[in-house]
Give the backbone structure.
Amino acid sequence: MSLALPVVDAITGRRSIRRFLATPIDRATIERILAIAARSPSGANMQPWQVHVVTGAAKARLSERVLAEAQRGEASPDYTYYPDNWFEPYLARRRRVGFALYALMGIERHDKGAREAQALENFRFFEAPVGLFVTLDRRLNPGSWIDCGMFLQSILLAARSFGLETCAQASWVRHGGTVRAALGLGDDQVLIAGVALGHADPSAPENRLVTDRAPVDAFTTFHERVD
């Protein structure tokens, strides 16, 4: 059976980009990416996702508000993305990717200030010209969260067909209330994630990070008999 290589390449070649070029992206391209992503599956074709696009001055003002909140050590979370208490194998995976990223950037493990400064770059969308926020009506159940996850993945993959790269960002969730206030969204919406969209900076060492993946037999069980 032959494989659709462009699709395989889009999936296996995708990386989280953490420094972008300032090259602008026209609105028609953004709309095309979102139109493609909207073909994602959803239960009963509910299409529960909402997308909020920020560019230019609007993006800069929003970033300033969230950066100020983060630098004060404050937060306005919409939900808790990560576990309250890390455990294996997830703790080791988290540490491994963090250490690999900082090593590429020349940041020493004990340099807390440099690590925190890099973390704050999330709220500048890593200098990407376009920021996306995906939100969901709070009244919807976990199935719709799964739908939004598939929609987000479609955005990341569709962007690559236009020569663009992305970074899906959970960091914004910790400041969901501030983001929603800046965008004029009501409490009925929950911020699922942010996405940085743009052209990858080829000179940035952090963009060379390629994370590992567990082998199929580590997460798959084939059930050949069910009693």
